[in-house]
Amino acid sequence: MLSVQNTDAPVTFTPELLGKFADVVSRYPEGKRKSALLPILHLVQAELGWVSAPAMDKVAEYLKIEPIEVYEVATFYTMYFLKPQGKYMLEVCRTGPCEIVGATPIMEHIEKTLGVKEGDVTPDGLFSWRGVECLAACGYGPVLQIGPEYTFYENLTNESVDKLISDLKGKANN
Amino acid sequence: MGRKLLLEHINVPGINTFDVYRSKGGYASVEKALKTLSPDDVVEEVKKSGLRGRGGAGFPTGMKWSFLAKPEGVPRYLVCNGDESEPGTFKDRYLMTHIPHLLIEGMIVASYALGAKTSYIYLRGEMMPQIRILERAIAEAKNAGFLGKNILGTGYDLELYVQPGGGAYICGEETALLESLEGKRGNPRIKPPFPAIAGLYGCPTVVNNVESIAAVVPIINEGGDEYAKIGIGRSTGTKLISAGGNLKRPGVYEIELGVPVEDFIYGDDYCQGIANGKRLKAVVAGGSSVPILPANLILKTINNENRLMSYESLSDGGFATGTMLGSGGFIAYDEDQCIVRNTWNFARFYHHESCGQCSPCREGTGWMEKVLHRLEYGHGKMSDMDLLVDVSKKIEGNTICPLGDAAAWPVASAIRHFRDEFEWHVTNPSIAVTNNYGLAHYADPLPKLETAEA
């Protein structure tokens, strides 16, 4: 069951982030600030790694809406992480066209290589992985994406996955 | 190879930048429309072109535009649907990645035709790279005077913004998309009222697919009548086909509507046949929602005519022996693919993506997934096939939006055409877990008409 998760860590939005919020809000007509909710939740997640209940409360306050209006949106859409994830979340497409060109073996390989089950975080905090539904890259499967940039990695093989994981480890340790 | 109206310059280096795009004749349709045509003239050209919505429904775009209410003092909106989530479909991502200005150009002309002063391009949230590409292109176009106040000195003002979704297939349904754009859950609205009367913020709104809006550019440049000469019958113009699955050369192809399916699969200009020298077993021709067809029925209609890539030919035979062009998400399955597993996979997708508003869809998709799972994993019963058909019929037509139908059709069609494979899973449970049924007779000569109608 999806639920919002609390945290004791105080949430503050930097002036830079608030500037981005204001830019988003300016795209809609007077009185339609709520339209900024989805883009702002993406910005919050890119900054904090996930969206906690206190973060959502602050977003509600900023948009002048009720917290429940933020919770119901964050739990409806699949891209928002309601608990902390690894620094790199590998999201592998598992739908038909990717499945018939080998998505399941790729997920099994990732599970074995990282040593964690779907949705769990590696002990070093670097990785998590999960299967997701169609990513609109069906001609280049198997495919995975990594947020918050949502870079795509296409035509995956066990070897290319190994290289990706080792590259990301190298990047994180620098 | 047919004519390319959308992707003609796709391989020109730097075509994603304003200057190169402009040097190839880009934004000519904006100059033509804003300086020489009235908004109604533009609508008329699009009507004449016969363009049909490229998102999947195939509704005539010009007619949709002409339904837009125009009450005094109320803003009107154009919203571009770039939610592209239909499994098998990836053409819009391709177009926006490589030739973003084509969409911007189409948005300006379409917004002018509809009298919109603010327009939004709604993209699925996973397309963050494309959002950045489009935002950069918008800034370039604005800088060159094609967006903002008083465009090209004509007095027409337009602001264009890109909005990300949050990862929900349902937001490709136009009213769910509008809810999402208003910052809410993507629950489809009950129609009527249609968006043309009460859409975004309750104002008159047109929602069009990325490719439909891009197609407005060649329609205005060449004229609706010229555009209508391309294609076949009521399937006018060109269509982007996303080709995936077990094809030798998958990718996005712009075809003139009317190309024979056989040429598209095996032709040198297109997919070049099935990968790894295997044989074709089945095809999903228009995205996961449309009925799956065995190889024999996708290549020929039941009357033994060549099946063409067009709205009419693909639906020839109705759902008994035909399918739909849909969004053009063309998925080919080779002889090693398991239809039961694929059907379970799609059922899981629809269960996952059901918004939960309507009970038949929310509950029915879950039950179909469960029953198909047990068939795939060797615990199925002979009665399961009739049960699945029964559940699918109870979903179809009983929901607010077409997601219910989209979930029901792949299951019903798989059982209609591949029943023997499902039965084999029941009678050979342990073998079915590790082996596949194979090609069977699915590539054989056409079934008898009586059988197909039963």
Automatic annotation (TrEMBL), chain A:
The keyword Cell cycle does not apply. Binds 1 [2Fe-2S] cluster. Keywords: 2Fe-2S, Iron, Iron-sulfur, Metal-binding. [2Fe-2S] cluster binds at C93, C98, C134, C138. One of its GO terms (molecular function) is 2 iron, 2 sulfur cluster binding. SUPFAM superfamilies: Thioredoxin-like. The keyword Metal-binding applies. It holds the Pfam family 2Fe-2S_thioredx. It comes from the Bacteria. Its cofactor is [2Fe-2S] cluster. Belongs to the complex I 24 kDa subunit family. This is NAD(P)H-dependent oxidoreductase subunit E.
TrEMBL record, chain B:
It catalyses: a quinone + NADH + 5 H(+)(in) = a quinol + NAD(+) + 4 H(+)(out). InterPro entries: NADH-UbQ_OxRdtase_51kDa_CS (IPR001949), NADH-UbQ_OxRdtase_suF (IPR011537), Nuo51_FMN-bd (IPR011538), Nuo51_FMN-bd_sf (IPR037225), Nuop51_4Fe4S-bd (IPR019575), Nuop51_4Fe4S-bd_sf (IPR037207). Residues 340-385 form the NADH-ubiquinone oxidoreductase 51kDa subunit iron-sulphur binding domain. It comes from the Bacteria. Pfam families: Complex1_51K, NADH_4Fe-4S. Its cofactor is FMN; [4Fe-4S] cluster. Keywords: 4Fe-4S, Flavoprotein, FMN, Iron, Iron-sulfur, Metal-binding, NAD, Oxidoreductase, Quinone, Translocase. Its EC number is 7.1.1.-. One of its GO terms (molecular function) is metal ion binding. NDH-1 shuttles electrons from NADH, via FMN and iron-sulfur (Fe-S) centers, to quinones in the respiratory chain. Belongs to the complex I 51 kDa subunit family. NCBIfam families: nuoF_fam (TIGR01959), PRK13596.1 (NF010120). This is NADH-quinone oxidoreductase subunit F. It comes from Mucilaginibacter conchicola.
